[in-house]
Design a protein that fits this description.
The protein is mainly α. The protein has two domains: 3-88, Uncharacterised protein YqeY/AIM41, N-terminal domain (Hypothetical Protein Yqey, Chain: A, domain1, Orthogonal Bundle), CATH 1.10.1510; 97-148, Arc Repressor Mutant, subunit A (Orthogonal Bundle). It is 78% helix and 0% strand. It is globular. The relative contact order is 0.10.
């Protein structure tokens, strides 16, 4: 069992004792997502895989927030933001733009990326190095900008 999953389970027990409904609901959702992924893979997840599951869940919440804002549903926006803040407690700190740019520069030098034909390989290399700490959209934008120059 990954350390991260164990921490989520420990926090779930603590919040159940404290009778904090939102925190309990979020942790149950996260554990359910992790469990489903373990069933799909037929093995326990590593911490890195668990982080990917949590990041995907955070992305769903971010998308929901955008949709609810477009639909003028402030009550649901507030709830989704609270849930998202609880999920982010388990995610590693996001990389700064400077750190991402350094990874992009290193990957372009390593792979010899000239023009946009190697863009996919550069993005793949950067995302592997970032290990879930950088969004794909940000990396893609920086790689496009770097290769366009």
């Amino acid at each position: 069992m990954s350390e991260l999953k164990a921490k989520i389970e420990q926090d779930l027990k603590q919040f159940q004792k404290e009778r904090k409904a939102l925190e309990v609901a979020v942790r149950r959702l996260l554990l359910s997502e992790i469990h489903n992924k373990e069933i799909d893979l037929k093995r326990p997840l590593t911490d890195e895989e668990t982080i990917k599951v949590l990041a995907a869940n955070a992305k769903k919440h971010e998308d929901s927030i955008a949709q609810f804002k477009a639909g003028q549903r402030e009550d649901l926006v507030s709830q989704e933001e609270q849930e998202l803040s609880e999920i982010r407690k388990y995610l590693p700190e996001a990389m700064s733009d400077q750190e991402i740019q350094k990874l992009v520069d290193d990957a372009v030098l390593k792979l010899g990326g000239e023009g946009t034909k190697n863009m996919g390989m550069v993005i793949k290399e950067v995302m592997a190095q970032a290990k879930g700490r950088a969004s794909g959209a940000t990396v893609s934008q920086m790689v496009k900008q770097k290769l366009a120059n």
